[in-house]
Amino acid sequence: MQRLIVIGGGAAGSAVVGEFLRRGQPGEFDLTWLVGRQAPGRGVAYSTTAEHHLLNVRAANMGLFADDAGGFIAYAQAQGWPVKGLDFVPRTWYGDYLEAVLAREIFAARARGLALRALSVDAASVRGNDANGYVVGTVEGEEFDADAVVLAIGALPATPLAEVTAAAQASHAYAADPWHWPLPRHSPERVVVLGTGLTAVDALQSAARLWPSAQLTAISRHGQLPRSHNPAPGQPYEHQASLLEALRAQPRVARWLREIRDAMQDDGAEWRSVVDGLRAETQGLWRSLDVDERARFQRHLRWLWESARHRLPQQTTNELARLRTQGRLKILAAHIRSIDKHPSEREQLEVRVQPRGAGNVRSFAADLVIQATGFNISVKATDHVLIRQMVDEGVAHADELDLGLIADAEGRLLRADGTPRHGLRCLGTLLRGSVWECSGLPEIRALAKTIACGLPAELRRVAKPASARTSTSSFNAASVSTVV
Ligand SMILES: Cc1cc2nc3c(=O)[nH]c(=O)nc-3n(C[C@H](O)[C@H](O)[C@H](O)COP(=O)(O)OP(=O)(O)OC[C@H]3O[C@@H](n4cnc5c(N)ncnc54)[C@H](O)[C@@H]3O)c2cc1C
């Protein structure tokens, strides 16, 4: 029997565990799921209870499994929720779906004789053993033997920007984690959000509701909010095939920008359709770039791509526009120079910025600063216990540009020499440097299926010494809680 361990209890962990359960034959494997400290299923994005935090993918395309892209809309409609396929619904509803679909798959798998134990513990280490397998350690000191391990831990914990002084961090007026803010004793008059992407928009919406008289400022280098979805998707771009051919022929970022701009200016072309038509090919295109071109993309094009690709539902765009018209929200294109305790006793923090294109540094006071600069995937500097151990001990390797871990297109973690590690896979945001796009559900579920189909076969190909089949797990059931 194959011993599989999945680490991480968010949507990516759910997708891969669900795929194993749907595909597994009775007696084929023994599956352990280390879900971390939260209940399994929702993870970071779908734990919100705020109804104004909407999905940015249409309901019709949010099924958890690759073979069932319509699974979410079917579930929602069966519940009698007022949802149509083109709608962008509250993320908390999606969290309900994740929990329901997991419960269904676990129940069905158990009825077929497949075992799953889900434990609310954090993995602290993954080390190879002598038998071509792994030993997974937990923060409590338990150890589990495994023939294969799948990492699905999402992004790394946020760390404060380098420009934020220790005094500012200690002031409790600075929130490095955009999901957990200190609630000031008095309603803040000035709230600054660092970043203008999707996470920043979440923070702005919540702050606007919590403190209706607060002045909000969002700051990013380019000062660009995500673009908006159309109410209905446009027609596919007519010349998508030749555009792709041109991009593949010349893997140069400057060239790509010209090709994509030209395509958007074609008669009758809708820019969103041009961008959306690239989605299925993004991973291959990214992999065709050499490291200099990848760095160039990061520096010059990433902000533009992100604002065009990760779009907002129209309702959210309208809400932000209303706040701006009312004078409650300002968007600033600027570089952060420093964030420190304010010199006056009355004020909390002083934010110093250099507006884009202008020489003069400006400073202003803020009662609360929320860092919402996007996913942290900086593996080289992280203090995430598990990733620190894996990278320090050479079990996993940081991407050259520090965009997560190096892996191949099927999520196999690679050794320093580029060869794949047997039985060790990863999916989700930490694959940014390897495949660029693996943080949205459509890419996550595709890779979850690839892993669940490929991993058992990969294990069967590698014969193990008989002695290695006996579990030496030092798992002590009393010290961890089983969550499903
Ligand atoms: C604001 C926001 C909105 C989004 N909206 C959408 C959307 O509308 N549609 C879409 O497709 N995508 C959306 N996304 C992308 C989203 O990231 C993915 O859809 C998906 O939720 C990612 O799940 P994950 O499991 O990879 O990560 P996470 O949700 O971060 O889950 C990872 C889990 O692993 C756990 N963990 C970490 N370390 C360990 C450890 N050592 N041991 C055990 N467990 C560990 C964590 O506690 C966490 O529970 C959104 C993201 C954000 C931030």
Sequence stretches where pLDDT stays below 50 over 5 or more residues: 466-480
Instruction: Tell me how many strands there are.
Output: 16
The helix content is: 25-40%
Q: What average pLDDT do the residues reach?
A: 92
Roughly how many Å apart are the termini?
A: 21 Å
Named CATH topology of the largest domain: FAD/NAD(P)-binding domain
Strand content: 15-25%
Total domains, how many?
Answer: 3
Which small compounds were modeled alongside the protein? Answer: flavin-adenine dinucleotide
- Strand order in space, largest sheet: 8-14-9-10-11-12-13
What gyration radius follows from the Cα positions, in whole Å?
A: 23 Å
Q: Can you tell me the overall shape?
A: globular
Per CATH, the superfamily of the largest domain is FAD/NAD(P)-binding domain
> What is the overall number of helices?
14
Order of helices and strands: EHEHHEEEEEHEEHEHHHHHHEEEEHEEHH
Major sheet attributes: 7 strands, mixed
User: Would you state the CATH class of the largest domain?
Assistant: Alpha Beta
* Class computed from helices, strands and strand pairing: alpha/beta
CATH architecture tag of the largest domain: 3-Layer(bba) Sandwich
